Each structure stands twice: as structure tokens, then as C-alpha cells.
Amino acid sequence: MYDIIYIGKNTDQQYLDLKLKYPTAKFSEDVSSAKKKCFTKMFWVVWPDINVCDNFKFDYSADEWSQEYIHTFLNGDTYDGIILVPKRAQIAERELRHRFFVNKKEVDIVASTPKPFDLYYVDTWEDYEHALENSSTEMFWAVSHNLKYSMSYINSFYFSHHNSYDRKENHAFVHDVDERKLYNGVFLCSRNKPLNKKQIDYRFLVNAKQWDDVVSGSRNYEIYVINNYQEYLDVMEHCPTEMFWMIPPHVSVRDNFEFDLYFSHDNEYDRKINHVFKNGDYYDGVVLCSKHAPISEREFKYRFITNKKEHEVVASDPLKYDKIVVNTYEEFCELQKTVSTDFFYVIPSDVDVDWDFDYQIPYYERDNIHVFKNGEYYDGVFLIHKENLLAQREFDYRFFRNKKEIDILASAPKPYDKIYVDNYDDLIMQLSTVKSNFVWIIPNDVDIDWNFDYHIPYYERDNIHVFKNGNFHDGVFLIHKDKPLAQREFDYRFFVNKKEIDITVSTPKLYDIVFISYNEPNADDNYTMLTQRFPRAKRIHGVKGIHQAHIEAARLCDTNMFWVVDGDAHVLDDFTFEHQVPKWQRDQVFVWRSRNPINDLEYGYGGIKLFPVKETLNMDITKTDMTTSISSKFNAMRTVSNITSFNTDEFSTWKSAFRECCKLASKTIRGQVDNETDERLEQWCETGQDALYGKYAIQGACAGRAFGYDNRNSPDILNLINDFDWLYEQFSKHTI
Predict the structure, then answer these.
(1) Same domain, 660 and 632
(2) Rounded Cα distance, 504 and 515, in Å
(3) Angle, to 10 degrees, between the axis of helix 694-710 and the axis of helix 674-686?
(4) Residue 281 shares a structural domain with residue 388
(5) Are both 592 and 711 inside the same structural domain?
(6) Distances (CA, A) of 157 to 41, 169, 190, 376
């Protein structure tokens, strides 16, 4: 068996494989050196650019007559492969270079096949330099990650060493893109004719041999679902193609979208820009990214790419956003951690929703909270990004710093609970039981004629909305259940943070009317006339003592104030008992004027009065003037309410004049004006002589004036004027 010499390096895989099968095989850098290593009269030469056929055993033996010839064996279909060389043969360098020998014998045995030319991905000048330096074959294929090429064609394409012309030229093959025949795809490059950087950058070979064979075409770019910016950077670094598809995680790609967009190397504009496609209504979904146009972290975060080209193609739709129903800020914070979509709806538990949630928020507005109409206001359903931080105050007041109001009616507020209350303690107790966030407070002293169709904007949760109760805003009010309310605010219906709503929702219940009589001769007639007009009137009769009679009258009442009509009062036809006292004045006394039938005076004496029940029950019975002892807050009303018909008999006339003039003279009536008092005293004592029982009125007035002057500093003695028995004794002594 002849020696086998491998022309190449002892590290070449082909030599190692050969050595494994033929342990005596040697290597040499060239044929000349190989002769020195050979111990047989002929030796085999195995080139590094061929593949030895498995069925070739190097067992060929040359005929004696042909041992002076170089035996060439088929390398595929040409004789440029393995040779059997006589040790004494003289071979020219040119013969070796072209593997075309003068003194030869062609042996019709396929001993090898051409080793395919090396293949390199050449997308940059650096890639080309690397291939040029490291290729083990005289020619090498330059392909690109950005195209789809035919490997079968590449493996079968070969120039024999006899074809020195083609081996020294660069070759370009057809790159078919949308039926355009381009020559910027696959190249077969010769190490004998290096290219320059410009040719590589533009992928345009000068003086290259162009072939009509289609070797490459469009390729589908890689597709990645990218969740965050770091993943985007990783893909930018490791993706083999210059462009790649980026799909956000929370979109649904449409079935008819093909991902077949491709740009050949000559289309520099489209290759070096990002391409964005519609995601429903907006361009914030699928992107064909270019490595030449990196996306910043901010652009990625907001899906708003600056260097982009927009395509009017809907490639995807946003996934339906998650929905959470919450009542408190704590619930919101916990549930925000569990949502699976980038955006999610927050539905307050106090709204009713009748909407399909068919709304898309553009991703570049991720910092904005989109709020939808809840009845009249934007304080119901809102749409928020899962990474958007929300302060408790924003949530509690449903008033957001970064918001966008969407004019879509998504919900309506649930009806507010109603509670009916008598007092502050009752209010506090019932507030703990309500389920709605806002609650109607309805005092039991009002009559309602309204449907409670009112919606308070949530950002006014600290304001108490108070509605008109007849003439004043002191009846029904609307309050947030967590709003602290002081007892004084409730009692006086005068709130610190309030908003008065000019809607009359209630009227105060009419105050009770109590007719107080003792032994007035005309009392029955006056009461009958009163009840004919005002059937709700009640009566107290025969209670001894002015103070005691009024206390008993207060005990009859169901309302917090009550009207007092004296037994000798004849109510005028135009007086209606409809005066409304605002809540903050319901500890005050109101006295209307009365007309004196004897001297024609018109002031509070004998007039109809409106008293607070609580204060009347707790009045100071030691005070001479009962009216001003009930409350220090006295209101003299200008309207004449009645005629005080006290002149029904001699004693009644005298008694009434005595009592009134005693109080005037002793100045026991709180708040009286001295000039007015003196004028009234003078008229009592001097006017009305000719009127019915007029002289008894004047006599009683004069006697009362004197008694008042004499005892003005003796309240215990002055208090005798409320004792009707004592008064009768005085009447007997002083009348003629």
C-alpha cells in the first residue's frame, strides 16, 4: 500500500479522520515536502478541499508500465481530486495550482467529491474580513441572516481547479423578492479577488459574474413575545436578522395577519426604521423592529416609537382588560397585584354598571387614568395601568391628578341609603348600619315630597349637601358615612363644610297649636273658631299658674316648637300658623303682635307666641314674665296675629291690665325699650275710658303701675301677679 500524504495541517478535521482510518497517513504542507516523508515509490496526495469517498480504500496499484505517470482520480465528475504521484516525478507549480498535469493517467474511479465551499454569514465588513482570513476553501459563500437561501444549490455548486477563471472571480446569484430579480443576496467570493467595504455595505459587487439561478428569496423575520425592555435588549443583541417582530404580551394577533413583510438590502429606508401596526384603534401593538433604529426604554414603556413608519393594517387587538370591584383603597391595592392585563378596570361597589367595557386606551396614555361618566359626574368606573401608583386621597375622592374624562356613560350611582332620625345619638347609631357610601339623613320633623334623585360628586365627599326644607336649608341632608359630624352641627343643622342645594325636598311639619284657657268667658267660643280653621289645635284649660299652664301645653306637643294661643285671643282671619323657624333658631321665642281692643295698642301683649318645647319644659318658673323666662333669645314679630279680647268682664279686664302694667313698670320684660315702655304705660293708664269695661282697664293699669314701681327690686313680691286668687283680692280692694 502506498503512503498517504494529507496536504494541510495536522489539526484539520479531515486529516484526523483520515489518520483514524489509516494510522500510517502523514501530513505535509505541500507536495514537494511530501516526497521527503514518503517511503514508497509512489504516494497518495489528499487535498484539504475534497471529501474522500467511503468506498475508496487507497488500495489501487499502478501497472508497471504506468508507474511513471501521475494518476488522477475522479473528484465527482472532474479529475482534480486525489492523485497518485511517482516519488521521482517532477511537477511544475502551475500544474499543482490548476491540478492539471501533463504527464498523467486518468483513472475512471470516483475517489472523492469536491468539498463544498465554506459558507459564512456576511452582513458586515467585519464578517467579510473574518471569512476572507479563515476560509479553508479557495472560494467561500457569503450569505446573510436576512434572506432565505437554497442550501442544496450551494452544496452542489462547484468550480473545478481546472476552471481557474471562475475561481478567481466573484459571483452573484439572483435574490428573488416579489418577482424582482436582484443580485444583492448570495455571493460566491474568491479569495483571489477581495472585495472592499463599500461593496459589502451596499451588498453590490462590482465586476462580479451574475448568474440567472435563483438562490435566495424573502425570509420570515423572527417573532418574539417581549414582556419588558430587558428582553427587548436581549433580542436586539442575539437575534440573527437585522429586523424582528415584537409582540407585546397583552395583545391578540389576528388570524389573518401573516408576518410576511420583508425588505431587501436595497431598501435602506425600510430596513432602518421601525414599522408599527394597528392594535385595534392605535399603533401600540405589533412592531417590526429594526436593529438600525434602537428603541429607547421610554419609547418601549409607552409603546410610542419615534423613528417609525405606520401601517394601516390591524395586526392585533388588545386583550379584554381585567375588571376588579372594590370598596376601599386597601382592596384596590391588594387586587392591583393580581391583575393579568396591563390595564384594568376599577369598578366601585357603589355603582350599577350597564356597559360592555368595549374601550381601548392608547398605551402612550398609560400614566393617565381614564374615568367614565357615572350618572352626571366622572366618579365611577375608571381604567388604570397596573403600574400606575394611586394615592389613597385620589381613590377616596375619585379625583385623579392625571386623568382623562371619557364621555361614555358606563355606570350610574346606586341609590343611597336613607335613615330617619330624631336626634344625634340616633344618627350615630344608624350610620354604623348603612351600606352605601353616601346616606340621606331625614329628620323626623319634616314632610317629604321628593324622589331623592340626586347624585353628589365624589370629590365633594367632605361637603354635606343640604336641601331646602321649605324656606331654609335645615331639613334633609346628604352626607358621606365616614364624614365626622359634631352634635352641635346636627342639632342646629348648621354645618362647617356644607353646600346648599336649592331643591325643595321637604317642608317642616306644622307645629302643634295649643289653646291655653283658665276661666275666660269667651274661651270656648274662641277655641271653637280656632279649631274650625285649624283642626290640629289642642287645648289646656284650668291649670293654675301661668308657668304651669304653659309647661302642660308643652307636654301635649309632638313637634319641637308649638304655638300658644291665649284663651281671650280672637285670631285674625289672615293669620295662618305657618311661620317656619330655621333649625338654628329653634331655641328662641317668637311673639306676634296683638291689637288691644280698649286702647288700640299693638305690640306683643296677648299676641300669639311660638315657643320651643324643650326650653318651655325647663323654664324658670320664678321669673315674673313667663315669655322671656323661656329663652333669652326673643323675637318680636311685626305682624298683628289677633285681637286680645280680655275685656269680657270687670275682673278679667282689670286683672289683665294690672299684670301687664306691673311688668312694664317694674321693667321685668327682658329687652324692653324704656321709651316704648313709658309710652305704653301712659296709654294703658289714660286711654279707653269709653270702651267696654274701659274704666276697669284704666283702674287695673294704674294699680299695676304703682305695684310695679314699688316692688321693682322685689321679684318674689312681683311674682304674685301670676297668682289669680291674689289678683282677685287686689281687684276687690282697688275697684270702685
Answers:
(1) no
(2) 31
(3) 140
(4) no
(5) no
(6) 36, 15, 14, 77
pLDDT digits (tens, 9 = 90+) for 142-161: 999 999 999 999 999 999 99
- Same domain? For 572 and 635 the reply is yes
Asked if residue 372 and residue 333 are part of one domain, the reply reads yes
**Distance between CA 469 and CA 476 in Å, rounded?**
7
Residues 517 and 602 in one domain: yes
Q: CATH number of the domain that 528 lies in?
A: 3.90.550.10
Angle formed at CA 59 by CA 56 and CA 64, multiple of 5 degrees: 130
Cα separation, 733 vs 736, whole angstroms? 8
Tell me the CATH number at 46. Answer: 3.90.550
Are 490 and 410 spatial neighbours (Cβ–Cβ below 8 Å)?
Answer: no
The total number of structural domains that make up the chain: 7
Query: pLDDT by residue (tens digit) across 162-221?
Result: 999 999 999 999 999 999 999 999 999 999 999 999 999 999 999 999 999 999 999 999
Instruction: Tell me which of 86, 114, 142 is where a domain ends.
Output: 114
Q: Kindly list the averaged pLDDT for each block of 10 residues, start to end, along the chain of length 736.
A: 93 92 93 90 94 95 93 95 94 92 95 95 97 94 97 94 94 96 97 96 95 96 97 97 96 96 96 97 97 97 96 96 96 96 96 96 96 96 96 96 96 96 94 94 94 94 96 96 93 92 95 95 95 97 93 95 96 96 93 96 95 94 81 92 94 95 86 84 95 95 95 92 91 81
Phi, psi (rounded to 5 degrees) for 299: -60, -45
φ, ψ (nearest 5 deg) of residue 21: -85, -35
Cβ neighbours, 10 Å, residue 39: 10
Taking CA atoms, 94 is separated from 6, 43, 98, 162, 584, in Å, by 20, 20, 6, 11, 123
Minimal CA–CA distance to 437: which of 461, 466, 459, 412?
A: 461
Are both 13 and 109 inside the same structural domain?
yes
Report pLDDT digits (tens) over 577-603: 999 999 989 999 999 999 999 999 999
Best CA proximity match to 27, nearest among 46, 42, 13, 1: 46
Domain range for 703 is 651-736
Q: Please say which residue of 352, 386, 413 terminates a domain.
A: 413
Distances (CA, A) of 116 to 17, 52, 138, 164, 189: 17, 13, 11, 17, 13
Question: Do 301 and 349 have their domain in common?
Answer: no
Residues 333, 338, 341, 346, Cα dihedral to 10°: -40
Residue 55: all three cell numbers together = 468506498
